[in-house]
From TrEMBL:
Catalytic reactions on record: Exonucleolytic cleavage in the 3'- to 5'-direction to yield nucleoside 5'-phosphates
Main location: cytoplasm
InterPro entries hit by this protein: CSD2, NA-bd_OB-fold, RNase_II/R, RNase_II/R_CS, RNase_II/RNase_R, RNase_R, RNR_Ribonuclease, S1_domain
Function, as annotated: 3'-5' exoribonuclease that releases 5'-nucleoside monophosphates and is involved in maturation of structured RNAs.
EC number: 3.1.13.1
Family: Belongs to the RNR ribonuclease family. RNase R subfamily.
GO biological processes: mRNA catabolic process
A Pfam family of this chain: S1
Region (Disordered): 716-754
Protein's UniProt name: Ribonuclease R
Amino acid sequence: MNRLPSREEILQWISDNPTQTAKRDIARAFGIKGAARIDLKRMLRELEEEGHLQKKRKSYRDPDRLPPVSVLSVLPPDADGDLWARPLEWHGEGEEPRVLILPRESDASLGAGDRILAKLTATPGEDQDYTARLIRKIGTNPLRILGVFKKGSEGGRIVPVDKGVDKQWIVPEGAEHGARDGELVEAEQAGPKGRMGLPKARIMSRLGDPTAPRAVSLIAIHQHGIPDHFPDQVLAEADAMKPAGLKGRTDLRELPLITIDPSDARDHDDAVLAQPDDAPDNEGGHILWVAIADVAHYVTPGSELDREARKRGNSSYFPDRVVPMLPDRLSGDLCSLHEGVPRAVIVARIRIDAEGEKIGHRFERALMRSAASMSYEEAQSAIDGNPTDRAATMLDPVLRPLWAAYAALKKARERRQPLELDLPERRIELNEMGQVASISFKERLDAHRLIEEFMVLANVCAAETLIAKRQPLLFRVHEEPNPDKLDALREVVKGSGLTLAKGQVLKTAHLNRLLAQAEGTEQDELINLATLRSMTQAYYNAENFGHFGLALRDYAHFTSPIRRYSDLIVHRGLISAHGWGKDGLSDHDLERLDETAKHISDTERRSMLAERDTTDRYLAAFMSDRIGAELSGRISGIARFGVFVKLDETGADALVPIRSLGAEFFHYDAEDQTLMGSDSGRVVALGQRVVARLVEAAPISGGLIAELVEIEGAGLERGPSRRPGKPPRRKAGVAKKKAAAKAKKEKRKVTRRR
């Protein structure tokens, strides 16, 4: 050949000849000799840097890769006794990757021909391409048991922690996995279910002390009745699934959609892209792509998977584990948009103008291939001028257009004025032993806000489309605060020297003005907390009552069908509305839409309670070695029995019992949310800065008990007695109540006279 081949010709040749991808093979194929080899090497390096090729030892190949969770077929052991496996769903056009299985002591035995679901780790530069850890054998699903191990002369027994379960399990000798008497363990059923005697179990993992941090999420899961074991028939359905193909879908595999998630994300169900809109009528506008995993393709109405997903309602997230709504074959594999892996999606193509207003949208069923799986921190760092090598290649074609579109969406958000609460989210970091290593507050980056804005807009598009097509759906509803809660908020605001408009229809803009008044002041956190408490809880409903907090009229959840059943219903609605297939809403779905809305609202609250209990227990365990320490905080709650103090360091709430405030009697004013000493006249109120001494930390209950050392910089003086006395002064709320009671009494007298 007299000329260098084009980049396209090189890529096509590598695709057509996956076994001849060394540089010398490519040079021979195109007749490249001498100095021209230097130009070929440069071209291959550029293709590699741009992500079109991946160098493997001395050869180049298509960069398709295996997903982190994959189905493998176990091969016979080699001469060294190592177990290897081959992937059953390799999408790449190059040589099939080599996978080395790393068995653990507690793993079930594996033999040639076994099909397994495994977690993969890429090992570039090693003899193998990936290492694999067993999740479970395909087609097997032994029952899991959580309980306390009681050691016996031969083996022992397991006493389950589940409430109301009195059946024990025998652990035969040799199946204890080193467990000690009194330890909390996870075990699985061993052998067939017998009709006579106690069933047998094999211990899989030791969790140690039942009160230790590592055990608390499991205990919360069982206490709140969150299903954490998939029935055999559900797993059988999931295991039989094959990846969706291109038939009936738009091919978006060349579109550089990317996922941006937390660095420890367990699944990736949304991908995004932004492009300049070249239409002459939309100068400065953008085209947004929001691609969501097509879960409805795999979880069809009336299937075993569907029944189990509806039963769970949602995934539950804990610091050390996830209880997924769908089996890992779907949530971690087929429905997760892994980098470089073709995946089925429903995609929203949205046009916005330069001011961030939506001017049009449409939905498509498609096949995509993620160009990159990035963390929020990696994406943000790249935009801030410190890109990683990988992010640098994505900066101009992907990341900067995303941020340009986000800048436009921010303008629309500012005009819409959704509620702008500033309440930092806690992050519990665990070490390898499952103990709390640190507690910090998650940093809010523009990368987080960008994804949130894209998802909110996609959810609006889904709701509007289904309304326009007269297709029933589940709305995400958030009603405005009720009058009683607003009155309580106004009392807190008044006590803080701020104002909240009264006598007009409340809008989020009014609350945002209040939050802006408090920003940067001593009352900042108090006003944010009080505003949050005044809100009603969001829920699902087949009727549309709008979303007050987001200041949106039409809103539905569309963007997380892996972890929310509501989103799966919306996906089915879109399928039915567009006539994409037979996997849309069934008659049974439509008949029980109201019932489904109530059920999944309940399961959402169940998960929230379990997650909160777990967090409280982790915090109590973390604080248990700080007994006697003096900690700064702010009074966040007032009750008849005491006050709650939110500690600055961890954000944990500690209870200060009223008996520890002093020997005097304290009058509780529910309206003003204060406690007043009958002798000293000391007023304890919301928002006051305090120093509290930690007295007790109970990991089992998650409770923290403290006593106050200082209030607003002044040490506490003790009153002389506990007897109820007359306070030296009354707050306005108390005086109002007294006057109202007196007027009522006078009215009764007048009535009797008549």
